[in-house]
């Protein structure tokens, strides 16, 4: 019973993440960045897609799972993503996820169980919601109305395997592709995390924050002066001391 409930809970989790993303764009940069971070962190987990595919294709037997390793160059590496400008990074991410959606449509034909297909539909919905948030974030970047830079020719998601592959090889290629997808999303999450750290640093060192802190110190200083007790002089103490 526990195993049958798990896919449904994952589908609900995917739908929950997708719902706010499919609405209108948020104009709050920190809020939108937080959504992208959470989605990327969720999508990197293999139990959202790869484990389902391995199980449905019988690759969890006889050590076949060990062959599910990403092909070099199938997806952009973390280092390659970090070298991109923010705008080109978002465009590369959007393009790569578009290719992932096409590949998932092809892999869908190899998944027989309706329950697994339901979960795969949730995964695709979440990717579309993530892509929507990517477009929203691109609009918040400086110079969003300017001419966009060309997308770099860095390695992207590999195309669908040729139909000449036998069934086993096709399944293995699908497994390798999904392994690369999860690794790619982990790298994406790390890049977004760096964006968040950069935002925190800029907030701490912004002149506006410095002015606010200075004004707050002045207010506290004035309040402390008002709260200081007045020292009353004893009667007659204002007169000079009697002469000798």
* Quantity of strands, as a count: 0
pLDDT average, as an integer?
77
Could you state the order of secondary-structure elements as H and E?
HHHHHHHH
Largest sheet: none
Q: What general form does the structure show?
A: elongated
Number of structurally distinct domains:
1
* CATH architecture assignment: Up-down Bundle
Query: Which fold does the CATH topology refer to?
Result: Growth Hormone, Chain: A
Distance between the termini: 105 Å
Helix count, DSSP H or I runs of 4 or more residues? 8
User: From the structure provided, what is the oligomeric state, counting identical versus distinct chains?
Assistant: single chain
- Structural class of the secondary structure composition? mainly alpha
Q: Helical amount among residues, as a percent range?
A: 55-70%
Beta-strand residue fraction: under 5%
Residue windows where pLDDT falls under 50 for at least 5 positions: 1-5, 146-156, 237-244
InterPro entries: 4_helix_cytokine-like_core (IPR009079), Leukemia_IF/oncostatin (IPR001581), OSM (IPR039578)
Region (Disordered): 142-166, 220-244
Subcellular location: Secreted
Keywords: Cytokine, Secreted, Signal
Features:
disordered N terminus, elongated, single chain, disordered C terminus, 244 residues, mainly alpha, 64% helix, Growth Hormone, Chain: A
Fold topology:
Elements: H1 2-21, H2 29-43, H3 50-56, H4 78-82, H5 86-107, H6 114-140, H7 167-204, H8 207-227
Helix pairs in contact: 1-2, 1-6, 2-6, 2-7, 5-6
What can you tell me about this protein's structure?
This protein has 244 residues and is mainly α. It has a single domain (7-204), classed as Growth Hormone, Chain: A. The chain is built from 8 helices and no strands. It has helices spanning 2-21, 29-43, 50-56, 78-82, 86-107, 114-140, 167-204, 207-227. Keywords: Cytokine, Secreted, Signal. It holds the Pfam family LIF_OSM.
């Amino acid at each position: 019973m526990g195993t049958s409930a798990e896919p449904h809970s994952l589908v609900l989790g995917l739908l929950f993440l997708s719902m706010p993303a499919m609405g209108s764009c948020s104009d709050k940069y920190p809020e939108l960045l937080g959504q992208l971070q959470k989605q990327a962190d969720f999508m990197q987990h293999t139990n959202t897609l790869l484990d389902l595919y391995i199980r449905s294709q019988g690759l969890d037997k006889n050590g076949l799972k060990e062959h599910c390793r990403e092909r070099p160059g199938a997806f952009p590496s973390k280092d390659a993503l970090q070298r991109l400008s923010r705008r080109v990074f978002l465009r590369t991410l959007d393009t790569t996820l578009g290719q992932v959606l096409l590949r998932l449509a092809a892999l869908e034909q190899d998944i027989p169980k309706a329950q697994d297909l339901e979960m795969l539909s949730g995964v695709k919905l979440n990717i579309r919601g993530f892509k929507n948030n990517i477009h929203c974030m691109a609009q918040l970047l400086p110079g969003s109305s300017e001419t966009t830079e060309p997308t770099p020719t860095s390695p992207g998601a590999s195309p669908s395997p040729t139909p000449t592959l036998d069934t086993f090889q096709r399944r293995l290629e699908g497994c390798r592709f999904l392994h690369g997808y999860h690794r790619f999303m982990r790298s994406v999450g790390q890049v977004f995390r760096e964006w968040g750290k950069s935002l925190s640093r800029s907030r701490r060192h912004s002149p506006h924050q410095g002015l606010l802190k200075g004004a707050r110190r002045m207010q506290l200083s004035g309040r402390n002066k008002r709260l200081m007790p007045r020292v009353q002089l004893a009667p007659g103490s204002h007169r000079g001391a009697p002469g000798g």
